[in-house]
Amino acid sequence: MNTTKRQKQRKVLLMGKSGAGKSSMRSIVFSNYVAKDVRRLGATIDVEHSNIKFMGNLMLNLWDCGGQDGFVENYLTHQRTHVFGSVAVLIFVFDIESREFQADVVSYSNIIRALSESSPSAKVFCLIHKMDLVQSRLRVQLFEERAEYIRQASEGFKDEVEFFPTSIWDQSLYKAWTQIIYYLIPNAGTIESLLQQLAEVIDARELILYERTTCLMVTHVTRGMESQNPFIDRFERISSILKTHKQSMAKHTNLPPNIANFAEMQIKTGRFMFFITRLTENTNLAASIPPSEQVFNAARVNIMLVRPRFAELDIASKPRLGMQQAFAHGAEGGERERKDGEPAY
Amino acid sequence: MDSHYRRSSVSSHHFFPHDRHYDEPEAPPPGPSRLKPGAQLTMMRFLQDLPDAEAPPTDVTPRYHTGRLPNSKAGDGKPRLLLMGQRRSGKSSISSVVFHKLPPSETLYLETTTRIKKESMHSFMDFQVWDFPGHLDYFDPAFDVDNIFEEIGALIWVIDAQDEYLEAIMRLNTTILNLQHSYPNINVEVFVHKVDGLSEDYKGDTFRDIIQRVQDELSDHGYENAPVSFYQTSIYDHSIFEAFSKVIQKLIPQLPTLEALLNSLCSTCKIEKAYLFDIMSKIYIATDTSPTDIGSYEICSDYIDVVIDVSEIYGWDRPAENGNAEVVENGNNDAESLITMEKKGNNYLYLREINKYLALICLMGDDSPAEKKAVVDYNVGVFQDALKQVFPRAERDLPVIQTS
């Protein structure tokens, strides 16, 4: 019991220089802030902990570490083992506009060194942030130069460290965080194969699994022609469309954003049909299917039937009674008696 | 809800995808199109559509004209909206934000307008927007006043509420008084603009003060009840769209018909609020006569964004699929969409594409559960047929564009 619980808690460190945009990023992704609201945030003092329940079995233990020199000094000395012990992921945020890039990298190296001592198996993601402030034609080049320079300073993590250009003003933020989350999900492979099966059964062009509160993509399945869709950034775009819509609904219905969820959204046109519906307690499933009323209805029924299967995946491999009851509510009671995943035509 | 970047990602020219039959070869392919700024795309669309806009086909004479005005002399039937006001009051910003979908934050970089900028809107009804430089004196004898004001639909006078406005009011009054002689039917719409920067109290005071001063001056000159309306606007929220909606609605001769249709639809289907939107400009051309609040307008307008964005992503041109059964069956002809909410009882949002330009959006009431959607569908179909008789141009357009 105790061990399963520890497995579920994944410790994520969010670090970087003061003012780099760590807390802004966190507020937008996890706390339903709008990009322009983040200017209200003050400096982070010491470490702000937040526990984010993600996909049921995954609990993110996010440490937003204040970046002022005094705090960093403290992390590296007195709190060294406390901060850097048993870390799953380190996210280091660089400000592209920083005047002291060299100094940032030195500080980064120190942190990397501490990390390799205490949690050598951790994964490092570097986000080069505020890319919107760079002229668009210079972006790619500047990003690559910086990334290469930082990689050289990454010591033991040199080969694994991943870089993403980000900005809170476009979907690049979602793109980076989707990758991070994907790395953290323990049973991504199982979810993917189940999703693939589901896609075959309902003849979907594309299925995308989104986490409910953050609207981040967990995984997706694309079949046949749809892989030629010219919008390669569509997953992030839908993330940000959903997020924006959620905020708009929250604002106008006077509900707090964390519960202003839609139960279902359908769009039917002559070229495609699309719907997003709740799959499990923590996930939404978006499906793009061929334009046919029958396929559409069959797909909806099948997704309703497959819910318990995903709910099982959602909880740990060892189901606990209390949890299961909680999910039974979300999985439409009666349907659970049916054989899971069986196609219903 | 003002997500700057998303506004920019919405390339406003996309209608629902299956309507893109007029995509000529010069039209951008769906892929790279999103890399271009919205304004440029809009311009391209104008260029594509313009031949039709300039020379309305005559083979089918519309039974009801679309937006011809009392002042227009049997001309091209395109009402003009004149944007006037002091320099730096925000005229060009307004026209860029409303008609070119420029993100509001980028209007800072607009240059001063030095000559009259004419822009044609080709939508459910054609109209022109003339953006005037602030420093011109229109009643200088050198100006061809008749040419400017002859076919005018509405004069929009923009006043910067954050600036000293006495001179603006003086010039507005001079203009109104001058116009009263020759063109008494012109609607004068005063936008008290940039109110986003003012506190609630101060905003109200300024607004009332401006109304008071304009009306006093006019009645001193013997014009009681001049056709002047006032609006508080800002480009940073939806108020500018709301104000434009009201202005445009006055220019639609069929408005009472539309409202009656919407009213009967609402009462039959227990709809809380129904809007008829112009998809591209997100101006609503009619709503039922129940009280309006800006909140429901904003929900609907954001909802259009969602539908358009998703349609853009999945509505790309697929190469013809191998001849299986689904290809024959083509799903809906008109896009429709609905959103049900989790925590709001039975309320839901319903969108139905009416024609190339218009979409109907309904906020459904508590006593109209989603199970009864089939009935709503049917009634909306009836409404759609009725609307076709009101705006005959939708069908007229189809053959014309395909041959061009």
Protein described:
Chain B: It catalyses: GTP + H2O = GDP + phosphate + H(+). The complex is a heterodimer of chains A (345) and B (404). By secondary structure, chain A is α/β, with parallel strands linked by helices. Chain A has helices at 2-8, 22-30, 69-76, 80-84, 101-118, 139-152, 172-184, 188-202, 234-253, 293-314, 321-330; strands at 9-16, 47-54, 58-65, 89-95, 123-129, 162-165, 206-211, 217-222, 262-268, 273-278, 283-289. In chain A, helix 7 crosses helix 9 and helix 8 (188-202) runs antiparallel to helix 10 (293-314). The longest helix of chain A has 22 residues, at 293-314. Mean pLDDT of chain A is 83; it is low at 1-7 and 316-345. Chain B is an alpha/beta fold and 404 residues long. Chain B has 2 domains: 65-250, P-loop containing nucleotide triphosphate hydrolases (Rossmann fold); 255-320 and 328-403, Beta-Lactamase (2-Layer Sandwich). Chain B contains 13 helices and 11 strands. Chain B has helices at 4-9, 30-33, 38-54, 91-100, 145-149, 166-182, 200-220, 239-250, 255-269, 294-314, 325-328, 373-390, 393-403, and strands spanning 80-85, 117-122, 126-131, 152-160, 187-193, 228-232, 271-278, 283-287, 336-341, 348-353, 358-364. A 6-stranded mixed β-sheet of chain B has the order 2-3-1-4-5-6, with helices on both faces. Residues 1-75, 322-331 and 394-404 of chain B have low confidence and may be disordered. Classes of the chains: A alpha/beta (345), B alpha/beta (404). The interface between A and B is large, with 50 and 50 residues. Strand 9 of chain A pairs antiparallel with strand 9 of chain B, so a sheet runs across the interface.
